[in-house]
Task: structure prediction
Amino acid sequence: MFKKFSFEDVSAQNQVKASVQRKIRQSIAEEYPGLEPVLDDILPKKSPLIVAKCQNHLNLVLVNNVPLFFSVRDGPYMPTLRLLHQYPNIMKKLQVDRGAIRFVLSGANIMCPGLTSPGGALDEEVEAESPVAVMAEGKQHALAIGFTKMSAKDIKAINKGIGVDNLHYLNDGLWKMERLD
Amino acid sequence: MADKPQPVRVVYCPVCSMPPEYCEFGPDFEKCKPWLIQNFPDLYPDLLKETNERDADKVADKLQVTGISSGSSDGAATSAPKQEEVKRLPGGKIKKKEKQEVVIEKVIRNKRKCITTVKGLELFGVKLSDASKKLGKKFATGASVVKGPTEKDQIDVQGDISYDIVEFITDTWPDVPESAIYFIEDGKKVPAA
Result:
């Protein structure tokens, strides 16, 4: 999704009103309970929250010009990889095998066999249509953020086709956009 | 969780901006290598071995080169081909870096009025929005960033300031050498200096 993404794709940036801010906070807190103790550090109450609207119904949540979360249409808010690297345990994790890393880093969606093979790992509790962190075999940090197409059980049972949509990965356009002014 | 989890500080490779463990999958692993060897030798144990071998090769190469060049004149050494910087595009394609120059053009708007356009300032790492503000302030005219032809941004300044602007540019942005500034006069490119 962010394969090609630059400043030009941002069509409008607005400081959102307090009620919208509250809504965003609330939905982030619901989605990532692990983030609650540090939520005030990440999204300080005082500093203004800016929402950048981009093409393809994409929204970025910015604090101090740093993109922290993104969402598609009215979907759940997902952290950017830089944020996820800071707080690695806030999302459910899936692990792909070593062979898949190369493809994931060029933007491919994650196929089921890459998750079920010996190098991969699955969290049984992952439901369909939920945001996940994609880890890699033998690596410490997440390499992508995805949105599951089927539940973990289905991935195991069907073992074919796309399991997770790749939304945001290392070195894509959003990753390179450390700051947005 | 009683305690606040502290943010993990992740080190990123300065070359490809990814965590060092992913450098090998990055666009330019070769360029990352020196940094990796210095900072994370344990991540890629193979690298050290490889470089040791290569260093040995290099030394041998150098010996050969000095042997040859000592015979030839100095002129050959100074006119060594300037390596053009290449920029990797996401598709793995290589794009040549554009020549760094600032082009100033005067466009007549109607009879007595004209607009001075400045192209190419962004190639020197100048922020166009800042630049237009500064220009507007200096010359007390309207100055704006305009999307020029072929997707390039340029600055339009009202009025004919083409003579004062050269000095102003070199003063405010020391990175821009006077030799890189060009005028367009009668469709011809003329160096300002």
